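Appendix C reproduces, verbatim, an entry submitted by the partner laboratory led by Prof. M.T., so that reviewers can inspect both the input and the predicted structure.
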Amino acid sequence: MGNEYDISIEDGVTPLLEEDEIRRDCDLVLAQEGVGRPCVVSVSVVSDDRMHELNLRWRGVDRATDVLSLECERPDDPDLTPGEPCELGDIVLAPAYIARQSKDFGTTPADECRLLLVHGVLHLLGYDHMTDEEAAVMEAREDELVSMVKTDARLDHVEFTRHRGSDDR
């Protein structure tokens, strides 16, 4: 039994990645992280307005953002029975925001989205970047994983610490 994905795209929103690629990239991260339990992941592609609403509701930040990760269960949760799927959580992507942001960081919109999808899955697995030490660990892992993802261009080290203090975007 493999991982299951619930991918939803808000009406009128154009995704930056095809659904098959979203599944493939998430599967790659889960496999490389050694997750042997099947996982259920929700990926939503939304407008900036919807992202703004969600960011305010879940983080108390009154603006849109590029990606949100809402964690549910961990694959190593001892309350899960062997073989029981893990409801890993939700990743929300805002492609219009991501496309604008990609110009600031010298990536293509699709590559920026790939980076943020990897970033989101790692958050669901417990990685964070609230401190410099956490950011260093997460960034190093992201670099490794992004190097395994098919991209439009070669991606150099990307410092995701930009998301720690990006309330001014």
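The helical segments are 19-32, 48-59, 95-105, 109-124, 132-146. Additional entries are available on request from the coordinating office.
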